[in-house]
Amino acid sequence: MNAEAQQMENNNTHAFETDVSRLLDIVANALYSNRDVFLRELISNAADACDRLRYDTIQNKELKSDDSDFEIHISIDRDKQTLTIRDNGIGMDKDDLIQNLGTIARSGTAAILENLKQQGNDGDMSLIGQFGVGFYASFMVADTVDVISKKAGSDKAYKWSSDGRTGYSIDDTSKDETGTEITLHLKTDAMDYSIDDKIKQIVQTYSDHIDIPVFLDTAEQNAEEPLNAASALWTRPKNDITEEQYKEFYHHIAQTFDEPLLTAHWKAEGVIEYTGLLFIPTMRPFDLYDPQRAHALRLYVKKVFISDKVDNLVYPWLRFIRGIVDTQDLPLNISREMLQNNPVVAKMRKGITKKILSELYSLSNKDNDTFETFWHQFGAVLKEGLYDAAEHRDDIFKVCRFATTEGNKLTSLADYVTRMKDGQDEIYYLSGEDAKSLKRSPQLEGFTARGLEVILMTDTIDEFWLQMVTEFDGKKFRSVTKGQVDLNQFDSDDKKDDGNKDEEKTSSESADKFAHYLKEQLGDDISYVRISKRLTNSPVCLIAEDGSVDMHMEKVLKIQQQYDPTIKKVLEINKDHSLIKKMIDQYETSESNIDLQDAARLLLDQALIIQGETIPDPSEFARRMASFMEKGL
Q1: Which CATH superfamily is domain 3-231 in?
Q2: Beta bridge partners of 185
Q3: Among 457, 463, 450, 459, which residue's Cα sits nearest to residue 493?
Q4: Rg (CA), the chain
Q5: What is this structure's pTM?
Q6: CA nearest 478: which of 531, 537, 418, 543?
Q7: Are 1 and 8 in contact (CB under 8 A)?
Q8: Which backbone phi and psi does 441 adopt, to 5 degrees?
Q9: CATH (residue range 498-632)
Q10: CATH fold match for the domains 3-231 and 498-632
Q11: DSSP H or E segment with residue 529
Q12: How many CB atoms lie within 10 A of CB 93?
């Protein structure tokens, strides 16, 4: 901390964190298509504060001594050019003010900032104007903001003030009631937010779903009727809820800025009763694969917010879901610790999972384009369930999609099975990093030549669930880069005369001898050499042994677990390739040919390069290649 910043701290004045300063600078200087959302953000924060106090009061009755209901009040002072939002929620102490208003504390704000960083040059500024950035959206319309807050259970109140540029100050103050009061000193070009009808329109558009009543007080008296419906959206009949209301609730609950790709609203009745209002985002959260990331479902009991950290309310592989679950079958005073192993929560998790998978399956049948948008964003995460949720595996398979060697469209396993050739009793697959590269793999040549479709597994998780799931619909999964495969039953019906058969037999005998020679030259670098039944155009490829780790899985394990394979790969050669034929001719002429020995090494290096493996001796590879190029030229 420099001397100037230190002096600021000593005078109860604090500097913003770097990320906050950058964000506020964007807010202050960007052009906005819709500044109205600042009020939505502040009302949303106030409602959250009321929810938190409502829950904490269940545990500690002393936190809220009176019987008054939770309320949010908006008041306008045209003489002072101020707009004030007041709630009687949990409130904040000094540490809370520093943490919540001086740092990037809200996930929605952090997500927007990260999105802007990724886009470069501050990204699309309209994102902030359209979706808001939590509390900091205040500075869209205010040149100064004052926050007075008193935390429940405390007798001290504090005032936070900032112009959104030079930092902020925190001072002791007085406040009778628990809660927070935010006063915005409106900019000259934002005085339309001092008009009553303008405020009413904004609240009814963006905050009608908030179950805390929002009142607009005048200078003469407090309002008696709230501006919003003030009822929990999920308790209303589906037919009474518009798509726009669902969307605004999603923005409120998810603290994000995209549109919901899928909305599921239902009431479960039976052994347990609960209501679910869940959303699948359109955009993938930037921290989707962060090991510390938890799901974002909120648990309510009888409309009272309990927690958003109930670990077993949803499977980790559905961690992208947003929304709420409200049940009547849990006590209001249940502790968060007791929730972790509660059978009611476990039953709700099962029901939530079935509902989401059912909705996704329905979407895949009704709107394939929208479903594929979902799959490209979250498919890899959903497939984690194939590994650790056997009871839901069949339903997960219904919505899984894969690239294949046939065209560019994704396919389900069920559709793949319907296209299998007569006599094909295995599901062939090839795993790697991307479908485009995999389609050029030499191991596919024999399958492609025979019209056999191969599934392309391109997600890291595929290698892991394939260790747990050995078959689908009675058909075993078979890697095309592992073990010996006999494709002769799928050959064409072309008849060959006896002369050709004799010629093939002679050629095979020569090829077998040459394969033995290659093994001698390559030594322990490979397991053995065999004549390939899968190559048609390439001279050589590598194959994993039966019983060993598959090729791509080995690469993944090397990166993640420093895996050191004990079983070497098999080198397969295409005896009908012109290069191999010439090498066989050279071998039959002279086994001690130095060029042939170098060519044997180059064959292995070529196979390693095609597979994306590291060449063990790049210098020797360069020497051999230069020598052969020189002779060729």
Answers
A1: Histidine kinase-like ATPase, C-terminal domain (3.30.565.10)
A2: 82, 144
A3: 450
A4: 33
A5: 0.76
A6: 543
A7: no
A8: -65, 135
A9: 1.20.120.790
A10: no
A11: strand 529-531
A12: 17
Q: What is the pLDDT of residue 360?
A: 97
Q: Residues 429, 420: contact at Cβ < 8 Å?
A: no
> Which class for 104: exposed (0-12), middle (13-18), buried (19 or more C-beta within 10 A)?
buried
| Whole-number Å distance between alpha carbons of 562 and 510 | 40
pLDDT above 50 for 94: yes
pLDDT of 151 over the 70 cut: yes
DSSP string, 223-252: -SS-SS--S-GGGS-GGG--HHHHHHHHHH
pLDDT (tens digit, 9 = 90+) per residue, 413-435?
Answer: 999 999 999 989 999 999 988 89
Nearest C-alpha neighbor of 133 from the set 176, 104, 157, 92: 104
Q: What is residue 127's predicted lDDT score, i.e. its pLDDT?
A: 45
Nearest to 82 by CA among 146, 29, 38, 132: 146
Tokens coding 197: 């009808």
Counting every residue, how long is the chain? Answer: 633
Burial class of residue 219 in the structure, from the number of CB atoms within 10 Å of its CB (0-12 exposed, 13-18 middle, 19+ buried): exposed
Query: What's the half-sphere exposure (Cβ side, CA atoms, 13 Å) at 370?
Result: 17
In this structure, of 285-294, 311-320, 521-530, 618-627, the range with the lowest mean pLDDT score is 285-294
Task: Output the six-digit token pair for 558.
Answer: 């090397």
481 DSSP 8-state letter: T
Distance CA 337, CA 220 (A): 48
Contact assessment for residue 410 and residue 451, using Cβ atoms and an 8 Å cutoff: no
CATH number listed for the domain at residues 234-364? 3.30.230.80
The pair of structure tokens assigned to 551 is: 């090729």
Segments making up each domain of the chain, as ranges: 3-231, 234-364, 498-632
CA distances from 86 to 276, 446, 550 (A): 30, 72, 62
